[in-house]
């Protein structure tokens, strides 16, 4: 697969099928990108299991932190990697030992490892590299457009919000 660009339908298909996410490199520091991506995914109804060996046994946003993927108490649909590209082969090694295998390995912005991606894909796992699920979800759900970003139109008009859970979900485009 060409990982330089992704069709919106590929990303939307992933985000619509994933329910549980293991976040490798999750940080308890509220100014780190992994923290606010974790918070965002939780707010959208995803179940997120933080992975960080330095904080194992503690909590991030009320979720128990695990030392490694092998320590997870349940299967996950996606592994979201917030680590340097050089750490990806070892993480993919851990992913390939999981039973059942996750559906997706997602590498965050700036993270790419083509050889590790090819190994995951050979095992039937979808791969996304150098993308952020928070950004992609916002773009595909139309939330980014609410603030005028990516829409070409800025407006002070407040969007119409429904009662309860405030998410339009990811749309297939």
Note the total helix count.
Answer: 6
Largest sheet: 5 strands, parallel
Q: How would you sum up the global shape? A: globular
Order of strands across the main sheet: 2-1-5-6-7
Average residue pLDDT: 89
pLDDT below 50 for ≥5 consecutive residues: which ranges? Answer: none
Alpha carbon gyration radius? 16 Å
What is the SS-derived class? alpha/beta
Terminal CA distance reads: 20 Å
Helix and strand run: HEHEEEEHEHEHH
- Total strands: the figure is 7
Strand content: 5-15%
Provide a concise account of the structure shown.
With 173 residues, the chain is an alpha/beta fold. It has helices at 8-17, 33-43, 88-97, 114-122, 133-141, 143-146; strands at residues 20-24, 47-51, 59-60, 63-64, 78-81, 104-107, 126-128.
Secondary-structure blueprint:
Elements: H1 8-17, E1 20-24, H2 33-43, E2 47-51, E3 59-60, E4 63-64, E5 78-81, H3 88-97, E6 104-107, H4 114-122, E7 126-128, H5 133-141, H6 143-146
Parallel strand pairs: 1-2, 1-5, 5-6, 6-7
Antiparallel strand pairs: 3-4
Helix pairs in contact: 1-5, 3-4
